[in-house]
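Async update (no meeting this week)

Hi team, since we skipped the sync, here's where things stand on the single-chain job. The sequence we agreed to prioritize is pasted below, unchanged from the tracker. I ran it this morning and attached the output directly underneath so nobody has to dig for it. Comments welcome in thread, and please keep replies under the output.
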Amino acid sequence: MPSSDFVVRGQRVVTPGSVQAASIYVHRGRVVAVRPFDDVPQGCKVVEAGESVVLPGLVDSHVHVNEPGRTRWEGFKTATRAAARGGTTTIVDMPLNSVPPTTTLEGFRQKLGAARGQCRVDVAFWGGVVPGNLQQLAPLHAAGVVGFKCFLIPSGVEEFPPVTENELRPSMFELARLGVPLIVHAELPGPVERALAACCAGETGGDPRCYETFLRSRPREAEDEAVALMIGLCRETGARVHIVHHSSADALPLLREAKREGLPLSAETCPHYLAFAAEGIADGATEFKCCPPVRERENQERLWEALREGTISMVVSDHSPCPPEMKRRQEGDFLKAWGGISSLQFRLAVVWTEARRRGFALEDLARWLAHEPARLAGLDLRKGSIAPGREADLVFFDPEAAFVVAPEINEHRHKLTPYDGQTLSGVVEATYLRGEKIYERGHFSERPTGRLLKRGDEGKSSDVFDDVESFED
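Output:
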């Protein structure tokens, strides 16, 4: 029988492919065995989950923390508190909206320095692909980023410009050589520019307070054409490609065909595309603005079907907060407001609220919110499932309980979110990171214990990560 420091025991433990009564043996922060419920070593400490579901700690591979440089937008301290309260034990930080961005080795160094000592959950990092930084990709990879992100359309911040097809191609050959994924904001500027000229110019220009005006300004064609471009580049270069925050259901046939072809290409969507519909967004409600936009109800249901069939493999937050004044809520101008939704803490509850009424199960939650994001970031041998060898990142979850989103429970730096006032199903009762309780019923552990993670050194498996304190020149 394997040695264990303690055993977590529950009637509903979500392991890969099943929900079962089980005992989870934890030794030195890792799961060493998953045994039958009554199989507990004599004299061993037992943590009883009772009727709570035990989920793997969630992994959110799409989080804009914004520190350093724009810490007033968010920051590692508040973002990781929100993650822990929402059952997320690992986040992967986006390379933009911080100053400097993570597009150079020096930018990565500053990011690590800002994060160290603040994090309540584990944090890994994406690098960025921008015009002119081809020679930075290999050094950033060697330093430990998990992969790279690019924009095909202006990102909203000057220090992270978009790349053209000709700029992107050599970078993708390099990423294929390095064996790391490229994650892509897949909208092309041409359709957006044409749509803006048609719906927002001259005397016939649309009302910027009207959500329909904004929706028309970011047409599905922008995503559809970008997805087609990335499929072609994926086929040509052999690079692993992942489409982030996908919202256009019209591009799903292209994604299905790429999957059938066996291309190394995947896609994610976000809670806001699965919970909100354009028909329900009021004029001036700029807290709902994001890019790509929340689309119509029929589009939403097609995204759910894509999750059911596996064409879309994961649901991540795309937590992209900003100071409330940047949302221009008083004037309600959708065209001028910052495009991003604040949602890191509420991802599990939002997705469960919508998924359960469509007949999805707890195993689906674990796959979409933990295993698949961990796999994208190369963390799946360490994170994302309750199985021997994985870290003992666990969430005690009550799927029958409900709560109302309100500022007093919102751990984000700023409280403006489109979920405010909504009643959501599913309450996180406790969160464990490597076997240590970091959150329980509104209370946090005394000090942050999250680690900064980097890709393993040359010669190790690409799935092995070391604590970032080993970062060297």
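Quick observations from my side:
The CA atoms of residues 82 and 411 lie 5 Å apart.
The first strand starts at residue 6 and ends at 15.
Reply here if anything looks off.
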